[in-house]
Design a protein that fits this description.
By secondary structure, the chain is an alpha+beta fold. It has helices at 27-42, 56-88, 184-191, 217-220, 240-247, 452-460, and strands at 113-119, 125-131, 144-152, 161-170, 196-203, 208-213, 224-229, 234-238, 262-264, 274-277, 285-289, 295-300, 305-307, 323-328, 335-340, 344-349, 359-362, 368-373, 380-385, 390-394, 409-411, 418-424, 427-435, 439-444, 471-476, 482-485, 493-497, 500-506. The chain contains 6 helices and 28 strands.
Length: 509
């Protein structure tokens, strides 16, 4: 996978709206049509009462004229309704439909989002992660609050920062119903809730390729956060002071909290993207992989951090294939998987003295850019590829022999490289996939292709005939690179792209 940098023409501080609804018309055009209907409805014949019944002919002509006028009005209204219905039935998919013109922008349809907020960043960010918090699980009420961390890709290396943020007062997307007067007062109160963003920064000297927060942070009180830098070094920070500062007025962050508590230099000057904390080892176990195909394990001891001197490395002829992503097993604390640029998904065991993969499976003819291990079903692993395809694998079918397993699900909907893939931690059938075609798609693997309702929809809408029935939602975000589910707010996602961060939740999940 090539270096995933943002476009040079990104304008700082601007943010294109997210993906528009499949059926929504531009607001201005809708208003135009409604206005025409009102004018036509108010139209009256100024001569309708000027004639008495002096002659049969006059009465007949007047009746015919009125009837013709009414018929013409009815036909015009019918044609406008048909035209509007035809426009509304047109699906817009950014990577398949006609490209936007120079003066056109996509606007989000509030009826398909339960929540949508855009966060402008000083520079594009290649990666983002969510900090676990103490606000409770299964949070569904509004306004919502969450904590995130990201790192920049500044034009000058010295201007880079690690940014930790608290986003609060995130209101539910308002969909006004003119006929519903009962909730008018409640809606007015919600409208006055302005989102609040608080941030703390740590200066960096290089671009960060990937950032990951330990899933045990809320339980241990240590917000261990690792960053994979383009200079080849991996930095481990404790962001607990930054987290505390958001909720403790007057708290001063110590200077030591703005420096890494440990630096991994085993990769030399070779950069990488693979980075993951173990979900089962609470003391802290970190895997980092680089573009030369080496994976190092760093563990926490009672007094310090220790990185194994011998890296894990594939023994095949393509052993120097870049490790693009790493995922610890969600069930076994010694097992992990990697996705490599030679198209293989490899399963490893940290107990191996040879530091070689236990199983290697060809998943794609192109790079395997990203992988995701399912939290709920520990034998499911998803992989996203450089040709835009992605699939889900049943690890029980993997073997060390020459047999090549087939994915239990495979999709080629996206038209550009997959940049991120993630199982919903609260629903094993839902998968989020981001791509270089500027979209994030949500998929429901539990949907059956022969579902009667879906079959009927595909018959009624011609645009649906080549769209997989498992596709739930398409969210548009320019140069999207990373997408993460919030484990404590069901259905909430945070994605990062060229224009900043999107915090969103759809009505589909």
């Amino acid at each position: 996978m090539s270096k995933r940098s943002a476009s040079e023409d990104i304008e700082s501080g601007s943010n294109s709206a997210a993906r528009t609804s499949a059926t929504a018309l531009p607001p201005a055009k809708t208003a135009q049509l409604e206005g025409d209907d009102v004018e036509m409805g108010d139209f009256e014949d100024p001569y309708g009462d000027d004639f008495e019944s002096d002659g049969e002919i006059i009465e007949l002509d007047s009746a015919e004229e009125d009837e013709d006028a009414e018929t013409g009005d009815a036909k015009m209204e019918e044609e406008e309704d048909q035209q509007q219905a035809q426009q509304e039935s047109t699906l817009y998919l950014p990577h398949k439909s006609k490209p936007l013109g120079p003066d056109e922008v996509l606007e989000a349809d509030p009826t398909v989002y339960e929540m949508l907020h855009n966060v402008n960043m000083p520079w594009p960010c290649l990666t983002v992660d969510i900090l676990p918090d103490a606000l409770g699980n299964e949070r569904r009420s509004y306004p919502a609050s969450l904590y995130v961390t990201t790192a920049t890709q500044a034009s000058k290396s010295k201007d880079n920062e690690l940014i930790t943020m608290k986003l609060s007062s995130l209101a539910k997307t308002l969909v006004k119903d003119e006929d519903d007067e009962n909730n008018e007062d409640e809606d007015e109160d919600d409208e006055h809730v302005d989102p609040i963003m608080e941030s703390e920064t740590i200066p960096l000297k290089h671009t960060t390729n990937r950032i990951r927060v330990s899933p045990h942070a809320a339980q241990t009180g240590e917000y261990l956060t690792a960053t994979m830098s383009e200079n080849g070094e991996v930095y481990i920070y404790d962001l607990s002071a930054q987290y505390k500062a958001f909720d403790t007025p007057g708290y001063m962050i110590p200077k030591t909290a703005k420096k890494p508590m440990h630096t991994i230099k085993a990769h030399g000057n070779v950069e990488g993207y693979g980075l993951d904390w173990s979900p089962l080892i609470s003391t802290g176990a970190l895997l980092s992989g680089d573009c030369s195909g080496r994976v190092y394990m760093t563990s926490r001891t009672t007094s310090s951090w220790v990185t194994d001197k011998t890296p894990f490395c594939a023994s095949s002829s393509s052993s120097n294939a870049s490790v693009e992503d790493i995922q610890w097993s969600t069930a076994e604390n010694t097992v992990f998987a990697t996705g490599d640029t030679d198209g293989y998904v490899r399963i490893w065991d940290t107990r191996s003295k040879k530091h070689k993969p236990a199983i290697s499976v060809a998943a794609s003819n192109t790079d395997v850019n990203v992988i995701s291990w399912c939290d709920k079903i520990n034998y499911l692993l998803a992989s996203g590829h450089d040709d835009g395809t992605w699939g889900v694998w049943d690890l029980r079918s993997f073997s060390a022999g020459p047999t090549k397993p087939s994915p239990v699900a495979h999709y080629d909907f996206h038209k550009s490289a997959i940049t991120s893939i993630s199982f919903n931690p609260l629903d094993e059938s839902i998968v989020a996939v981001s791509s270089e075609d500027n979209t994030v798609t949500l998929w429901d693997l539990a949907v059956e292709a022969d579902d009667e309702e879906i079959s009927q929809q595909r018959k009624e809408a011609q645009e649906l005939h080549d769209i997989p029935p498992q596709l739930l939602f398409v969210h548009w975000q320019r140069d999207v690179k990373d997408v993460r589910w919030h484990k404590q707010i069901p259905g909430c996602l945070v994605s990062t792209g060229g224009d900043g961060l999107n915090v969103w939740k759809t009505i589909s999940v």
